[in-house]
């Protein structure tokens, strides 16, 4: 082994240069990582290779030099370029020069199995490394190192493939004679593209754009000399960043605060970081204080003087493109400012790391007419600032969605500099917008090919009509044969990827044998195979409204793994025997072979459950066979579910919708809310049960590295909004535990049967207030923190959908390892017992794979999957919104005005034209009240949008249609029917925190809009309260640069809910009211139990005794909390009365005797703004979040 030294010069942040000497031990066994390796076995056979190998099916291998790697990384990222050898020389130099983003990008390319690219350790390879000669520059030395690497490959592979070196700095003339002979070529990127990618416009365009960006950067550097000497930044107001050492010291001494800067989507002028410890959230207002930081960057913030602190805005913002003036110009006459809570406010003094992504953007309108070559583009995501790009021909970019990247943000520049990467198509065309969604959420799947690499497809088993796949007889012997059982699946119609199937039968003595059978994906996808790496990278199948992007190739996802009927399929099964009360007696886990009798649809199963003997789509004999199973399944799962509910399991709502597409033109024919059927719950319960049991099982086998699913306890203050909302309707919601929450939500539901929308919204609010569920590695938390709050289980994981979730595949491997006895010995340091199951003992020696038992690696995979999951849900939500806007566009477009061209062109013609717009009126429910209006949720379409009462100009208007009192004679018939959009202006408005908003109408204003004789039929005051029903017209705010957004205009009131006198408070379940009625508490409870059981089928299987116990527990807690809250309120009330008194009305009552309206007694609501932010944050995930 040879030893050598390499010397690096590293620039520190103080601009001093440090010399670093590395001792390097040269080795002879550095592998070539090529499938062309002539050795037998190949030289890389001894090492574990986690990426793919250089391919044999390629005309050349590429070796980029530093000039290419540093500045043309995006070109190297293009998927057309494969078989790239990244040398250690280049990577080390990137690292030593602090180019960590570039470094990571190159690493990423090498990791991607589709790219067939590798990192070659040339600096450690005897025969490939070179020493720096005296007087030689680093560039020269590194270039020689690359040449040597090319020589090495040429020799090692015996010239089987030509080597092309890519360089913008060196050329063919820099080669030695023998290299020329050996066929090594040096090409510039331009030469390379011209020769090999002549017709690929995207690559050529990208190269051009990168060259322009570099040119500009170089100019920038030249100019900098003059400007940098000046302190500060001239007109931009930006400040120089403080040196890293000062930032670090500042953070340590808590003079500065570090965090990820997020820009509030609804108020782009405001950003915030969540600082550590006591400080909590820090607000950053305005571009100047943001000091060139971009949404997502890790920044360091210095607090401003307290006198400059501000409160976050509580307005609904008017326009995604608007930039608010700094600070809030509050209308002093409104009483809203009393709710303002001043927050720590700061400015960015340094950026620790950038989180710049590829952004989808649109050229600023009109910019294509400018003659210069610099243009501003508006990112689709409104939290990203405008970006300045250089393009020689902006006309071709007009109205296109393009991908851009940010390169730098110089101190004297108002906008960051970036460059154009590529076009993805005309704005507002469906395919363009879908591509945009995929890019914005980092889903790198090409829409057309689905992008599975050839290598991964080669790993797939063959299943063609000529050569159908058949189970292997040896494999069949090794599996439990369940083909004699009646097994069936229940899914939505046309489900192709069937993950799960079920069997259930009566085995006598009142006992039941129940089985959940899951596609055995791990049989087909081996750990670290190309397919596995690809699936891990994707993390999950992505479902958009009209298409999906699979995690696995179709031959697996739709054929061999999918548990289709009438064919033999491998499965992973969990089988239980249970007694008549659904107590589990035994549990069996293992591999099986099954043959499904039927792919049932939810509706069909529900039909059988409802007692039908035949259901559409299934023949009578099959129905006869399946019906007893479905009925027994329902009976059993109801019991299991009821038990879980009594333990605090929550039944929550999602506002999921489905789109029905027209066949002719792809337009949307309808939006359908998901119809809740009992069968959904039953299947869900079966899956929850299997997931729970498997979680405990793999935890027993892998104490430090089990892949678990965790739903953390919610932060109680996040529930404040929910509690207030419920209180405004006279209910008390209790959030001390999931049990208490479940009980009080059930109570609300039972008492509000006539208002299912109220209940639904309340449940949605509860979901929003909770944390998100996530994957964890068991070693990362103590065992008592594994709890799944929403499902009320101590252990939970994902096991039941391995075709579409990678986590499940990992769990399958861990489970197999546990039951085949190859898992590591369970450690003895933690002891938790889950009752009711018999587990096979796991005795073992360590031979399972590295990932499965490596807690740290498992944690990395878990966090990657959490990220992928979240992005895929957000993409799903974006696509839902996209189709919702298309639907509204279709519905509101007046076909008689102007040329129309179907849904594909989503309203490019621009400006709203009230007259030609057809009102699209629906009933909605007021779901959030803000200072200038409120949000309305339209359950029919799952759409939520703002209703503005106060215009951007500050004027308060109300539609005339809202003011007319129905049933009041309007006197003489008038032929003058006002337009539906007519409004009365000059109103006054009063907002009472978050639950009501009152608009007073001056008669003279109304008079100008209506003939006098009709004035008598007008209201003089309208009040809107949370949960009121209103009629709204759904409308679109059109935009070129952004997606169209939905807003609403009031069209009328739902009479029943608004005629309720404001002073009357509905009778609710306030415990105090409850106990004052004179009935005995026991009798009350019995009545209540009866009612709850009647109203809630989920609880019906429980005995009265069990119910009373559950409810009593909940209520005792409720009363206890209420007492505490009362004391607190009383104290606060006294304090308020003693000081100046914010209270709107001072009441001369003793606070401890009377129920108190909490809004009027706690004017300074400390956590209120946190709530608003929570809402902003949660609105992102609202329609897509499931806590499961
Ligand atoms: Zn080799």
Coarse shape: globular
Distance between the termini: 55 Å
Radius of gyration: 33 Å
Bound ligand species: zinc ion
Numbering strands along the chain, what is their spatial order in the largest sheet? 16-15-14-17-18
Structural class call reads alpha+beta
Please give the number of β-strands.
40
Determine the fraction of residues in helical runs and give it as a percent range.
Answer: 25-40%
Tally of helical segments: 33
Oligomer: single chain
Give the arrangement of secondary structure elements.
Blueprint: E1 2-11, E2 17-26, E3 61-64, H1 66-71, H2 73-77, E4 85-87, H3 88-96, H4 100-111, E5 118-120, H5 138-156, E6 163-166, H6 177-182, E7 185-187, H7 189-196, H8 201-228, H9 244-252, E8 256-260, E9 262-264, E10 267-274, E11 281-285, H10 286-290, E12 298-303, E13 346-353, E14 359-363, E15 374-379, E16 387-390, E17 400-408, E18 417-426, H11 430-440, H12 454-458, H13 473-478, E19 480-481, E20 487-491, E21 500-506, E22 512-519, H14 521-524, H15 530-538, E23 542-543, E24 548-549, H16 554-560, E25 568-578, E26 584-601, H17 602-609, H18 620-646, E27 657-661, E28 668-673, H19 678-701, E29 707-710, H20 720-727, H21 738-751, H22 756-769, E30 774-777, H23 806-819, H24 850-853, H25 855-892, E31 921-930, E32 933-938, E33 943-948, E34 958-959, H26 960-963, E35 983-984, E36 988-992, E37 996-1000, H27 1003-1009, E38 1021-1025, E39 1029-1037, E40 1045-1053, H28 1055-1058, H29 1071-1075, H30 1081-1095, H31 1104-1138, H32 1158-1161, H33 1168-1181
Parallel strand pairs: 3-6, 4-5, 6-7, 19-26, 20-26
Antiparallel strand pairs: 1-2, 8-12, 9-10, 10-11, 12-13, 14-15, 14-17, 15-16, 17-18, 20-21, 21-22, 22-25, 23-24, 25-26, 27-28, 29-30, 31-32, 31-39, 32-33, 34-35, 36-37, 37-38, 39-40
């Amino acid at each position: 082994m040879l030893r050598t030294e390499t010397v690096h010069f590293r620039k520190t942040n103080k601009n001093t240069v440090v010399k670093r000497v590395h001792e390097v031990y040269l080795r002879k066994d550095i592998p070539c990582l090529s499938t062309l390796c002539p050795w037998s076995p190949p030289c890389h056979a001894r090492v574990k290779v986690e990426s793919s190998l250089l391919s044999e099916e390629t005309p050349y291998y590429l070796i980029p030099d530093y000039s290419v790697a540093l500045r043309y990384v995006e070109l190297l990222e293009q998927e057309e370029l494969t078989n790239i050898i990244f040398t250690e020389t280049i990577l080390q130099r990137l690292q030593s020069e602090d180019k960590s983003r570039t470094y990571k990008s190159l690493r990423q390319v090498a990791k991607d199995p589709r790219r067939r690219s590798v990192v070659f350790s040339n600096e450690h390879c005897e025969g490939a490394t070179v020493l720096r000669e005296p007087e030689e520059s680093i560039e020269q030395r590194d270039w020689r190192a690359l040449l040597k690497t090319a020589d090495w490959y040429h020799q090692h592979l015996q010239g089987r493939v030509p080597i092309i070196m890519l360089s913008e700095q060196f050329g063919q003339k820099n080669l030695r004679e023998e290299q020329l002979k050996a066929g090594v070529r040096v090409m510039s990127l331009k030469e390379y593209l011209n020769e090999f990618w002549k017709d690929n416009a995207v690559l050529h365009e990208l190269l051009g754009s990168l060259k322009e960006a570099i040119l500009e950067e170089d100019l920038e550097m030249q100019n900098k000399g003059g400007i940098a000497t000046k302190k500060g930044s001239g007109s931009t107001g930006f400040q120089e960043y403080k040196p890293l050492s000062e930032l670090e010291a500042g953070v340590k001494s808590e003079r500065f605060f570090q965090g990820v800067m997020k820009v509030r989507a609804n108020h782009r002028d405001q950003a915030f970081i969540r600082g550590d410890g006591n400080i909590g959230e820090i607000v950053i207002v305005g571009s100047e204080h943001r000091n060139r930081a971009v949404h997502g960057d890790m920044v360091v913030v210095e607090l401003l003087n307290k006198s400059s602190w501000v409160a976050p805005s509580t307005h609904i913002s008017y326009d995604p493109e608007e930039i608010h003036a700094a600070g809030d110009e509050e209308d002093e006459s409104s009483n809203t400012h009393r709710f303002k809570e001043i927050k720590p406010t700061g400015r960015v003094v340094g950026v620790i790391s950038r989180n710049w992504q590829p952004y989808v953007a649109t050229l600023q309108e009109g910019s294509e007419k400018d003659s210069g070559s610099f243009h501003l583009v508006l990112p689709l995501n409104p939290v990203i600032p405008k970006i300045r790009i250089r393009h020689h021909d902006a006309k071709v970019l007009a109205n296109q969605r393009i991908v851009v990247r940010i390169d730098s943000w110089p101190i004297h520049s108002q906008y960051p500099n970036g460059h154009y990467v590529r076009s993805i198509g005309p704005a507002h065309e469906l395919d363009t917008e879908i591509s945009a969604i995929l890019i914005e959420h980092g889903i790198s799947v090409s829409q057309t090919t689905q992008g599975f690499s050839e290598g991964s497809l080669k790993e797939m088993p063959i299943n063609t009509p000529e050569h159908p796949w058949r189970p292997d007889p040896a494999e069949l012997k090794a599996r439990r044969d369940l083909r004699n059982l009646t097994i069936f699946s229940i899914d939505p119609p046309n489900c192709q990827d069937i993950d799960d199937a079920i069997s259930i039968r009566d085995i006598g003595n009142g006992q039941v044998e129940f089985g959940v059978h899951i596609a055995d994906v791990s049989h087909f996808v081996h750990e670290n195979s190309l397919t596995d790496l690809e699936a891990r990278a994707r993390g999950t199948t992505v479902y958009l409204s009209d298409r999906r992007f699979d995690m696995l190739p179709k031959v697996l996802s739709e054929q061999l793994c999918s548990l289709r009927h009438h064919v033999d399929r491998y499965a992973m099964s969990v089988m239980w025997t249970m007694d008549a009360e659904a107590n589990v007696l035994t549990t069996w886990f293992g591999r099986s072979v099954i043959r499904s009798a039927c792919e049932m649809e939810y509706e069909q199963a529900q039909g059988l459950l409802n007692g039908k003997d035949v259901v559409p789509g299934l023949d009578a004999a099959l129905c006869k066979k399946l019906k007893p199973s479905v009925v027994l399944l329902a009976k059993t799962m109801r019991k299991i579910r009821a038990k879980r509910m009594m333990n605090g399991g929550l039944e929550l709502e999602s506002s999921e919708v489905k789109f029905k597409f027209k066949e002719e033109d792809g337009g949307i024919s309808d939006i359908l809310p998901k119809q809740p059927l009992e069968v959904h719950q039953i299947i869900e319960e079966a899956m929850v049960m299997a997931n729970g049991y498997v979680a405990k099982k793999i935890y027993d086998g892998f104490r430090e590295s089990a892949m678990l699913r965790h739903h953390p306890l919610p932060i109680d203050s996040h529930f404040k909004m929910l509690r207030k909302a419920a209180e405004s309707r006279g209910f008390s919601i209790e959030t001390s535990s999931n049990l208490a929450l479940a009980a009080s939500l059930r109570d609300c539901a039972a008492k509000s049967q006539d208002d299912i929308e109220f209940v639904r919204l309340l449940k949605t609010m509860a979901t929003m207030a909770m944390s998100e569920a996530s994957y964890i590695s068991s070693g990362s938390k103590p065992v008592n923190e594994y709890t799944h709050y929403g499902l009320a289980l101590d252990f939970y994981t994902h096991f039941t959908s391995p075709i579409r979730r990678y986590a499940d595949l990992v769990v399958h491997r861990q489970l197999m390892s546990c039951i085949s006895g190859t898992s590591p010995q369970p450690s003895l340091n933690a002891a938790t017992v889950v009752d009711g199951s018999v587990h096979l003992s796991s005795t073992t020696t360590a031979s399972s794979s590295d990932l499965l038992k490596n807690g740290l690696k498992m944690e990395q995979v878990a966090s990657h999957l959490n990220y992928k999951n979240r992005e895929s849900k957000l993409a799903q939500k974006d696509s839902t919104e996209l189709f919702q806007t298309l639907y509204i566009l279709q519905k509101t477009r007046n076909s008689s005005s102007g040329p129309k061209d179907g849904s594909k062109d989503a309203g490019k013609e621009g400006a709203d034209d009230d007259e030609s717009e057809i009102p699209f009126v629906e009933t909605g429910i007021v779901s959030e009240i803000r200072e200038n209006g409120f949000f309305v949720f339209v359950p029919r379409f799952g759409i939520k949008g703002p209703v503005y009462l106060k215009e951007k100009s500050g004027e308060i208007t109300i539609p005339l249609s809202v003011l007319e009192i129905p049933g009041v004679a309007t006197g003489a018939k008038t032929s003058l029917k006002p337009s539906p959009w007519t409004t009365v202006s000059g109103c006054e408005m009063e907002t009472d925190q978050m639950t009501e908003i009152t608009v007073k109408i001056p008669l003279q204003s109304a008079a100008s809009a209506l003939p006098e004789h009709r004035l008598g039929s007008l209201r003089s005051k309208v009040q809107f309260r949370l949960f009121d029903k209103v009629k709204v017209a759904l409308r679109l705010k059109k935009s070129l640069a952004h997606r169209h957004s939905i807003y609403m205009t009031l069209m009328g009131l739902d009479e029943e809910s608004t005629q309720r006198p404001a002073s009357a408070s509905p009778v609710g379940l306030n415990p105090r009211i409850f106990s004052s009625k004179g009935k005995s508490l026991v009798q009350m409870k019995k009545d209540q139990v009866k009612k709850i059981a009647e109203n809630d089928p989920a609880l019906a299987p429980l005995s009265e005794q069990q119910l009373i116990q559950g409810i009593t527990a909940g209520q005792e807690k409720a009363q206890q909390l209420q007492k505490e809250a009362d004391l607190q309120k009383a104290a606060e009330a006294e304090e308020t009365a003693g000081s100046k008194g914010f209270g709107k009305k001072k009441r001369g009552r003793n606070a401890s005797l009377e129920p108190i309206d909490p809004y009027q007694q706690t004017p300074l609501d400390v956590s209120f703004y946190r709530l608003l932010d929570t809402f902003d944050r949660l609105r992102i995930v609202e329609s897509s979040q499931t806590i499961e």
